[in-house]
Amino acid sequence: MSQIKTGLLGGTFNPVHRGHIELGLKIKAAFNLDRILYILSSQPPHKKRQAVPAAELRLAMLKAALLPHPGLLPCDMELHRRGESWTIDTIRELKAAQPNEHFFFITGSEGFLKIRTWKEYRLVLQEVFFIIVLRRGSHRQKVEKLLREENIPLGLKNENPPLPPAAFLHAYVSDYLELSATAIRNKISHGQDISPYVEKNVQKIMEEIKLYEEG
Fold first, then answer.
1. Per-residue model confidence (pLDDT) at position 88
2. What is the mean predicted confidence (pLDDT) over 162-182?
3. Among 10, 41, 20, CA closest to 106
4. Res. 26: pLDDT tops 60
5. Which domain, by its residues, includes 33?
6. Secondary structure (3-state) at 61
7. CA distance linking residue 38 with residue 108, whole number of Å
8. 201 found inside a domain
9. I need a surface site. Which of 94, 101, 103, 184 has the fewest CB within 10 A?
10. What CATH number is attached to the domain comprising 12?
């Protein structure tokens, strides 16, 4: 019996938008993953200065957005952890609960280039596979240089994965993904239409409580 292959996509999802959904669907298909967990951050150490809506509200929007997509699942495990939430802690908890699964950590190239600021980052690199998304204007050479310096081999996504460490580069261009959650919040605060960028059920939640609106 083959091992389950699970993608891990973390974030504040503030708010979750169609770029997040499209990315998950594309990565799941490209790497033949069984599922992708959207791990909602409670108190991200790298976003201490950012005002973030209550986790329960962001979770409700995330559940609504993922509901039509059975292979994309919301994960609230970090919400039950006190204090700051670090990637290594989440990975350890997941591997303890599902020791026979292969985990693929999905991150953008910008985020990956900051990995040396993460808690116990070398252990993170050793514990899971990495799928590094190369977006428009991303720094492929810098990513490859960092991988070489950390002795992380590049894998081929059509191969049966070996044991970690290994990283996979995935070139990906999307107009949805290029529009950030920050830009969506700004559009809402200025009364602009966001219907092309968020699911209807997510927009309904935001409108009901006037989330991100000024005044």
1. 96
2. 79
3. 10
4. yes
5. 5-183
6. helix
7. 15
8. no
9. 101
10. 3.40.50.620
- Percent helix, strand and coil across the chain, each rounded to 5? 40, 15, 40
- Backbone φ and ψ for 6, nearest 5 degrees, come out as -120, 125
The answer to whether position 204 is within a domain reads no
Q: Which amino acid is at 149?
A: E
d(CA 102, CA 115): 21
Structure-token pair, residue 157: 């996504």
Whether residue 107 has pLDDT greater than 70 = yes
Q: Is residue 125 part of a domain?
A: yes
What's the pLDDT band for 82 if we cut at 50, 70, 90? confident
Give the closest residue to 136 by CA, choosing from 187, 178, 196, 94.
178
In a domain, 191, yes or no: no
Q: How far apart are CA 27 and CA 35, in angstroms?
A: 10
Indicate the number of domains in the chain: 1
pLDDT reported for residue 45: 61
Beta strands per DSSP E along the chain:
5-11, 35-40, 72-75, 102-108, 129-134, 167-171
